Automatic annotation (TrEMBL):
It is found in: Cell inner membrane. This is MATE family efflux transporter. The chain crosses the membrane at residues 50-77, 98-116, 136-153, 165-188, 194-219, 257-278, 284-303, 324-349, 361-383, 390-410, 422-441. InterPro entries: MATE_fam, MdtK-like, Membrane_Transporter-Flippase. The keyword Repressor does not apply. The keyword Transmembrane helix applies. Its main location: membrane. NCBIfam families: matE. It is a multi-pass membrane protein.
């Protein structure tokens, strides 16, 4: 057992969380720079252009989410096999995940591209927004395959505890995106800018380079995972396992993405100013979630490896400490955001006082409950990493279908709050879902799932876990 594995499996939990979470948070900060850079420059085009991006993002996220369960299954299994000391299985899982994710991404990218106009018509976007939104979505769907591949690369590397290489790749691509964004959006010299589509095109270029770099690193095999061409021969027993393990993950992420689309319907009914305010507020929320996401991803790796090593008690201790950190950390950030809300919104849209005022109201209504997001993310990470994907799926369905959208619709359409009712739905959801998820976690049934069995038993175990969780 090397020093890193010793820390992850038997050393200080605080040190292990920090060793993983800090690089992951840095990676997430840099990745958020894609959205921040886009939002910053697109905001200079006007509220309609911001609304175009805001409407488009949930739709592309839905398509990505549908295929993400397979990558999630690969990351979970790579972590558990690494904890169990089975390097050959780690390599096999990685190769099969690359194969499945690539095929799935191509299929979903084509479908998404063809259906883009219908998505926008269903959302009922205004004419001022439609053309830019369609261009943005088309380019985004062309790049879906690269987004999938690089996300899969990061997930697999994170599963084995390797975070330095993804950090280097993200650093380079973000810097490149920073240069390409204003060039593609506004143009330079004789080159005419492409507007909103230019933001999507800049991301496409940089994500494709990141995906290619990830595959090259896997093939060279110097950083914990080594792939060979023969490893890409389809293994149907593993594909069956990945389906049973990953299907709830796809449903979970799809439910969250579909919830965002449904919310976009509701937001769009209040006009462009509300859409723009919602878009800016959502961007700020994504920024705030960066540390919580980094912490939850660290939890996923540590819980996965400890479950693979047969140490569920340590996995529970890791999750409880992370929940405490997430609750306190995001509550503190929320208090700061409450004070500086107008300035945060003005960073994105400096010249529209209506959007600044409405966006600041959005932030102030929800920010004091951000600690609940930290709790939920850490618990869901533990559920996923232990193989209990159905738990995470049911929490997502409850959050989106039972709490957030019904609350948002009732408060915005049937009370005097109007679009402020949408803002309050975020606060209500954060509190309720955090409480439910932690109570469910404390029951302890998630500790009984074990995935690192012999090959002939793997699919059976995953299927039995899927069915058993559904019965409770």
């Amino acid at each position: 057992m090397n020093e890193t594995n010793h820390l992850f499996l038997s050393g200080s939990i605080s040190k292990a969380l920090l060793k993983l979470a800090v690089p992951i948070i840095l990676i997430n900060i840099l990745q958020s720079a894609y959205q921040l850079t886009d939002a910053f420059w697109v905001g200079r085009l006007g509220a309609a252009q911001v609304a175009a991006v805001s409407v488009s993002m949930p739709v592309t996220f839905l398509v990505i989410a549908i295929g993400s369960g397979l990558a999630m299954a690969g990351a979970i299994l790579s972590a558990q096999y690494m904890g169990a000391g089975q390097q050959d299985k780690v390599n096999h899982v990685a190769a099969q995940t690359v194969l499945m994710v690539t095929v799935t991404a191509i299929f979903l990218g084509v479908i998404g591209y063809l259906l883009s106009p219908y998505f926008l018509h269903l959302l009922g976007v205004e004419d001022a927004v439609y053309n830019d939104a369609l261009k943005f979505m088309h380019v985004s769907f062309v790049g879906v395959v690269f987004v999938f591949i690089y996300a899969m690369f990061q997930a697999l590397m994170r599963g084995i505890g390797q975070t330095k290489v993804p950090l280097i790749i993200v650093s380079v691509t973000v810097l490149l995106n920073f240069v390409l964004d204003p060039l593609f959006i506004f143009g330079y010299g004789s080159f005419t800018g492409l507007g909103v589509m230019g933001a999507a095109l800049a991301t496409l270029v940089t994500q494709s380079l990141a995906a290619i770099a990830g595959i090259v690193i896997f093939m060279r095999g110097r950083h914990g995972i080594k792939l060979k061409l023969s490893s890409f021969i389809p293994d149907y027993s593993y594909i069956k396992q990945a389906f049973y393990l990953g299907a709830p993950g796809s449903v979970e992420l799809s439910a969250r993405a579909f919830g965002l689309i449904i919310m976009s319907f509701l937001v769009a009914s209040f006009g462009t100013q509300t859409i723009a305010s919602y878009g800016v507020g959502s961007n700020i929320l994504q920024m705030v979630m960066i540390p919580a996401m980094g912490l939850s991803m660290a939890v996923s790796t540590l819980v996965g490896q400890n479950m693979g090593a047969g140490n569920p008690q340590r996995a529970e201790q890791i999750t409880k400490l992370a929940v405490l950190w997430g609750l306190c950390g995001l509550s503190f950030i929320g208090a700061i955001a409450f004070i500086f809300a107008p300035y945060l919104v003005a960073f994105f849209i400096p010249d529209d006082q209506g959007v600044i005022a409405k966006g600041a109201q959005f932030i102030r209504v929800m920010c004091l409950t951000w600690g609940g997001i930290g709790v939920q993310l850490c618990v869901v990470a533990a559920f996923r990493a232990s193989g209990n994907m159905l738990n995470a799926m049911l929490l997502a369905l409850f959050s989106q279908c039972v709490v957030q959208f019904p609350v948002a619709y009732i408060l915005s359409k049937h009370t005097h709050l109007g679009d402020h009712g949408i803002w309050y739905s975020f606060a209500v959801t954060n509190v309720i879902v955090a409480s439910l998820s932690y109570l469910w976690f404390c029951r302890g049934r998630w500790q009984q799932t074990k995935l690192t069995k012999d090959d002939k038993d793997i699919a059976k175990v995953s299927q039995e876990a899927f069915i058993e969780e559904g019965a409770h």
